[in-house]
Amino acid sequence: MANIRHPIVDVHTHVYLPRYAAELRARTSAPRILNWTNGVKTEERLLILDGEPSGGRPIGPQYWDRDEKLEFMRRHGINISFVSSANPWLDFLPADRAQTLAHELNNNLEEYCATSPPAEGFSGLKTLYGFGLLPLVPDVEVSTIIQTIEHLKSLPHIRGIIMGTKGIGKGLDDNTLDPVWDAIQAARLVVFIHPHYGVDSTAFGENDNGHVLPLALGFPFETTIAVTRLILSGVLDRFPDLRLLLAHSGGALPQLSSRLASCIQHDPIVANRLKHDARYYLGQLYFDAVAYGSEELTFVSQTISRASTFKNGGGTVDPAVGSTRLLFGTDHPFFPPLEASQKWPSVESNLAAIRSMAGVDSKPEHQANILGLNALRLFDLHDQVYT
Amino acid sequence: MANIRHPIVDVHTHVYLPRYAAELRARTSAPRILNWTNGVKTEERLLILDGEPSGGRPIGPQYWDRDEKLEFMRRHGINISFVSSANPWLDFLPADRAQTLAHELNNNLEEYCATSPPAEGFSGLKTLYGFGLLPLVPDVEVSTIIQTIEHLKSLPHIRGIIMGTKGIGKGLDDNTLDPVWDAIQAARLVVFIHPHYGVDSTAFGENDNGHVLPLALGFPFETTIAVTRLILSGVLDRFPDLRLLLAHSGGALPQLSSRLASCIQHDPIVANRLKHDARYYLGQLYFDAVAYGSEELTFVSQTISRASTFKNGGGTVDPAVGSTRLLFGTDHPFFPPLEASQKWPSVESNLAAIRSMAGVDSKPEHQANILGLNALRLFDLHDQVYT
């Protein structure tokens, strides 16, 4: 296979900045960082939801220390990372505190990235870029959110925004947010939509299944609901240039997209509101390639490629387009190996899945896109390197 | 394309038997059938959940009249239907009433099928077969459920059981149900797992999206959770010959199956309990082909075909096996056309999706399997016709 020179770019990698970790340590209810002891050893644990199984998860320097991030990247051959705060962001804070902390954390993340080493072999690029935060909490003024977007525009290494699914309390399909989408679209900031809450955990029953059900199912369900609600509310019709990146390959949206289209066709209240068949909008979205299986990624790519055929007025399939909207990611520092190992199985399985996708396995240019070039294009950094 | 003589068999088609409709009419809270009037016209409406959007859906003879079912089948070229009670089955009844009604409804459904016309061109077969009901409600004795299974074994046209996801209150992964799975497996009855409750509707927000979100997302999420919980609890390890048919092509299970496997690998409490990688179990399941899109069905088929590679100890991909576990269905009488039409778009889109699946479009024997022969084999009727 011909070699194409391209960076490996990780678009799904998290950090708890020291300022954020300090905020969590000062809290007495979830989300919080607490000292956990079993009499023999004491460690810090992160509890992101009350009643979380196993009393939360061990947390350490890999969550905040930049050197650990860079070492992780070096080990896995990752040249550039777009780092985002991990959930639950500022969701739990009162509006004024959320506003202040967003401003400070965005400055901190800019510095975290701006002072990172250059990306070796990719002239003019840094190793680290970031997704900033907005104070998306109840009772915040929309004008305050817009101010934060203005601030983010002034931070050259912040190329996007990570957000959960609650908006300012009523979800992302709340019409009140239209000026926010408008400002984000104008600023060309990429929105990374990421889950935190899952679905009501009573659905998962009483058996002890550790974190499996909320993480494997609840997380992708939440993302699927959020982006579906965005589609149904017409946000993608009103802001067609908005660039939304979906965590975990869009959750279940691709597999349920034809069912969604069929249900809409049978419900005139929604059908009459939308410009296109629901499947069209999948071609407007970006998907991280964090699905752990090549058949999954191939399928996501196909639902992107077929999207144009569902444009109102008609269109044709372009089988190459799918691989232009999938982007490699790791979910670091989550899913660390259970046993000491040089490389993380969670990362290796995502890399292997990309490389063995049908139609991509034999096309180095498609692999180069998913592994790195799509990210450079999406974040407007491509022309800096490839002129 | 060579013609292969095969019936078209619908495995996902519902009935509210007259006795069941009468039970719903006598009720004053959901689920119920009520008279709805807007001053101009009066109609019966079915309210399956309290607070359902649009005050429920219009209901009429297509829900209970056998002639309407047969006319629907004739119009769409369906030769044989495996009819099941629609949700919420007996879930809302006290144990003694559930037991009595299960017995009576199972007898009624046997008669509904036994007296149906012969399937033209398929010697010895009827047009109608059925899925029976079990009294799966809280406080029922397991021995009572077993008795009902014994009764179903004596009804020659009842070939399976339809069930929701609650079991006897704690879900299908409740170990108390082990004797039930054992009896069902021994009786060779097919279990059709079907959603009713969706997920907590607060996740769907405040915008008026009709029935779209609960039906397009909530339903498949519920099925996905239920079958995942069955896998995690070891039911498929303990009862490897159990034949489970999943509604709506397994919901989101195929797309989330590699993520599920990865999460399990990172959670020893579950990993140590299971015999195989989570993806292995998809090859043990049956999926209706009610997904409305050919890429979706192709993908489901691939996750079935790859399953054997995830067997503990290893195995090889058999690309032909996927099409042996997908089965045509319609979801009649739900999703009727909004405007009078000879054929239902919901049915036509499922037929078209099957016929244009990659790898199936050019293979008449695979189409014949999905459209009908898989069902004859699954329900032990194949050898009656093809000897």
Automatic annotation (TrEMBL), chains A, B:
GO term, biological process aspect, one: secondary metabolic process
Pfam families in UniProt: Amidohydro_2
Keywords: Decarboxylase, Lyase
Residue span, Amidohydrolase-related domain: 9-381
Any GO CC annotation of this UniProt entry: cytosol
Taxonomic source organism: Suillus subaureus
SUPFAM superfamilies per the UniProt record, alphabetical: Metallo-dependent hydrolases
Family, similarity comment: Belongs to the metallo-dependent hydrolases superfamily.
Name of the featured protein: Amidohydrolase 2
Record's keyword annotation contains Lyase: yes
Entry's Gene Ontology molecular function annotations: carboxy-lyase activity; hydrolase activity
Annotated signal peptide: none
